[in-house]
Write a structure and sequence with these properties.
245 residues, alpha/beta, Arc Repressor Mutant, subunit A, Rossmann fold
């Protein structure tokens, strides 16, 4: 009887362990069977966006001299629930202590690490128009580690001019320039009819992350990440909200 109860406890513990690891897949780096590296399951875009918001709130709390923060306080600031905050953080480990909350400094550092903000990124801007001008002058990019290092345009009147300390380059030279100096992220602010051709060239040159400000749905390989910012859609969402109040 004693042995059977002991076996039952062992089976129960084994089931718990299997559940803990059910959301992870272990894959060898060389693709062969055996031991490998643990790959976390895909995290939703909404979770990533909330992490970015949590980071900003934590920085505000730190600036105000606050050393600890509760999930409820983060939730109130972000317009969500404390359960959602805890769930978002649980994807990446265990944080904080029950009854004490989270260390602002430690959680800030952890979220920065999760978001890949412990390093700097080289950013290329393609399109030296009004939106491009506003983007290149935005100091928040550099504060987050995103450094605009090159600007391109096809307009002869803009090529050679200086923007925020950078010389606007001829877009025809993108391919050869990228072969000599790579970039981490490209921001595309071109006319819609030129966007796909530019993106094809960027992808061909090895760019893996693109921020798209055009109204075009870009076609890229599965290993290239595209995020689109469509201000017309955002305005229409606001107009809908106003029309249905």
């Amino acid at each position: 009887m004693h042995d059977r109860s002991r076996i039952a406890r062992i089976a129960e513990e084994s089931e718990k362990i299997h559940k803990q690891f059910a959301e992870h897949v272990t894959t060898p780096q060389d693709g062969s069977p055996g031991r490998g590296v643990t790959i976390m399951r895909k995290i939703s875009e909404s979770t990533v966006r909330r992490l970015s918001l949590y980071l900003r709130f934590l920085e505000q709390f730190a600036a105000a001299g606050q050393t600890t923060i509760s999930s409820a306080a983060l939730a109130r600031r972000g317009g969500t629930t404390s359960a959602q905050v805890r769930k978002d953080l649980s994807f990446f480990g265990s944080f904080g202590k029950r009854g004490l909350g989270y260390s602002v400094t430690e959680l800030t550092a952890k979220i920065r690490d999760i978001l890949g903000l412990k390093r700097t990124y080289r950013v290329m801007l393609v399109g030296a128009g009004r939106i491009g001008s506003a983007l290149v002058q935005y100091t928040g990019f550099r504060e987050r580690g995103f450094h605009v290092t090159t600007i391109y345009d096809k307009d002869p009147s803009k090529i050679g001019s200086r923007w925020n300390g950078l010389v606007v380059r001829d877009v025809r030279h993108i391919d050869t320039d990228l072969a000599q100096e790579s970039t981490d992220i490209a921001i595309v602010v071109t006319p819609a009819d030129a966007a796909q051709d530019i993106v094809d060239r960027l992808v061909g040159a090895g760019v893996k992350a693109i921020l798209n400000f055009t109204a075009v749905r870009l076609r890229v390989p599965s290993d290239v990440v595209v995020r689109s910012v469509n201000m017309a859609l955002e305005l229409e969402a606001l107009s809908f909200a106003l029309a249905n109040r």
